[in-house]
Amino acid sequence: MADTKYPATLLFTPTQLEDIDDREFVERVRNGETEAFNPLVLKYQGKIYNLIYLRVHDRETARDLCQDVFLKAFQGLPRFRRDSTFYSWLYQIAINCSIDFLRKRNRQRVLMFEALPVDADSELPMAETRPCPAEALESEELGRVMRQAIRRLSPGQRRVFRMRYRRELPIKEIARRLNKSEGTIKTHLYHAHRRLRSMLLPYLGNEPIEWIGEP
What we know:
Largest sheet: none
Radius of gyration: 25 Å
Oligomer: single chain
Helix content: 55-70%
Number of strands: 0
CATH superfamily of the largest domain: RNA polymerase sigma factor, region 2, helix turn helix motif
Strand content: under 5%
Structural class: mainly alpha
Number of helices: 11
Distance between the termini: 64 Å
Number of domains: 2
């Protein structure tokens, strides 16, 4: 059993926390002394929070994920292999939690493209789609990518798409203003939806996009 020169319930100063032997407290937790996990949380919670926040850019989400990281670490200590440091192991758990969260969020964003109609004769209900662009634009980066993608639509598709979703005009009104048939407007929207899906799905899946930054 590891040396127990520190009681687990002792209140540490920041300097003392930095100096504690992680291996000792890990071993004490593994031997059933659950309170020995507290100093490890206090020592690393700031670093783990900052690590996650830099990836998710949301304080509440970072706090929640930080708690998940330490819960996973506590539950996983029996499987912790001592061929790496405790912090390296904890760091990897935090990275994995961040990646899982971002993938889940990206899958939700993908739905706004997967849900776009593929039937050119079907009108996209505004009540169902209006929240999606708002959610997407919460991310400055995603908003920038979306704007670049919209600019890459053909002039006709881009004009109809913006009238429909930026100005929130019904298809009938767009057709009247452009002196086109409603069928033509729906066709423009159909191809715009398909084009946007094809351009943005790689980004939402954390894959590189070749056209980013191009004029």
